[in-house]
Amino acid sequence: MTAIVTEATVGTPLERARAGDGEAFATIVSEHEAMVFSLAYHFFNDRSRAEEIAQDVFLQLYRSLGTIATPSHLTHWLRQVTARRCIDQLRHSRLLRPVPLESIEVESNDRAADPLLDRKLRRMIAELPDMQRVI
Fold this sequence. Notes:
By secondary structure, this protein is an all-alpha fold. It is built from 6 helices and no strands. The termini are far apart.
């Protein structure tokens, strides 16, 4: 009994994934997902964030398969991209930090209203078409 050898069964998973073999890419993901997840999890100590980052990293890997030369380059590439993705997320979350409504100071409108400005605004609003005036 002779085994049939096809092009898809020859080579490393990386070579086969570059050739379009989906199963080979799945093999790469399963071989490296623990490392990628672990790096992201230890960075944030947040399981859902680590899963999201891992998904982004493997999507980027799929798009960049042609630039990966060897299996050792793949491991290095995954570590670098994961670390950079974590840093980017940290920077982004610091910029968009939520602020509780209770901590926001509301400016009081103690100053006297400007009657000239008030009249001008009312006149301008009255000149608007009906739909814009309603809004």
